[in-house]
Amino acid sequence: MSALAAMMLLQATASFLNQMLPTLAPILQVELGWPDTLVGYLVALSTIGAIAFLVAGGPLVRGAGPIRAVQAGLGLGMLGVALLQVPVLVAPLLASILIGLAYGPSTPAGSDVLMRYAPVRHRTLIFSLKQAGVPLGGALAGLLLPLLAAAFGWRAALWGVIGILAAAVLAVQGVRGRVDAGRDRSRLRMRLVFSPANVREPFAALAAGQSLRRIALAGGFLAMAQGGWNAFLVTYLVRAVALSPVQAGLVFAVMQTAGAFGRIGIGWLADRVGSGISVTRASAASAGAATLALGLAGPDWPLPALLGLAGIAGLTVSGWNGVQLAEIARRAPRHLVGEASAGGTVFVFLGFVAGPSVFAMLLALTGRYDVPCFALAAMPLVAVALLTGVRRA
Prior knowledge:
Layout: H1 2-18, H2 20-32, H3 38-56, H4 58-64, H5 66-83, H6 91-103, H7 106-117, H8 123-131, H9 133-152, H10 154-171, H11 173-179, H12 190-193, H13 196-205, H14 212-239, H15 245-273, H16 276-296, H17 303-317, H18 321-331, H19 337-366, H20 370-377, H21 379-387
């Protein structure tokens, strides 16, 4: 339980950091003169940083230990948040890369820990519990950061983020020695990190188990819709639906909170049904419908309707991730679980790059927010097609 609690806290904190830019975007756009589309590209750049770690960071997780790897990542995140306060054009670009590198260790480190500690018959639920930390961190960002910025200014909000990251690093130090006891210090060599064999390893691991590549690719299409929601929901609600930043942050927080319950509920259901694939297909179809509905939202929609849609989106658009990771871990050879999880997450993060980027490009081309939503609504349906015919593990 202590290992699960530590990883859930670290996952939630990394997600809180990762969702900082989308939730503060409308405020930073005013204060720093950013265009509306920039947040999509910054989120995409952050995700590229996370992908870089997932592709090459396996030796660092095994060499430092999973807890220490995530702690070190959050340290990079603190530096990235501090950089956002530097009034130089390149600063938000570098900050986004550092934030992505900070988020990267959480998934392979978490998979390694949970495969060692989770009982087999509850493994999908426990993976979903850990992944529930992702929307919980996003909910905290949506609720807390706009309020901090409104009350004390945007710089104070950024320093609050740094304080929360530091507190999480210190909180898990007590379990670090036990969880990281099996670390292999000989892996802490930069030549291993950048070796071609290491870079290929996450992708090679996806060829070692049943249908891993199709499951990973489906995750990428699901992530396109989720990435669009995460990156642009607050900006959409402020610019196109005429909500205040605090109201938009509340809607974002409801979506993220529902996502936490969705991940747990879908994980529990997958264990009961005995098929994570069937449950993921149903969730994906619902995610497409919710994204289509978002494109129809406008200033005439009352706040309760927007909160209701955000709740449905949380359950469906982001509820699939824990089950997908558990399916990859279940189907991968035991000695390649971390690598296969990293490879699968690379596809997910590529979707997180593509989703906000497509949204930003279509927004720039059309000047409308509904067109990008309609385009992203089709992506979960592609995932449904990919998962059709995948057998139970």
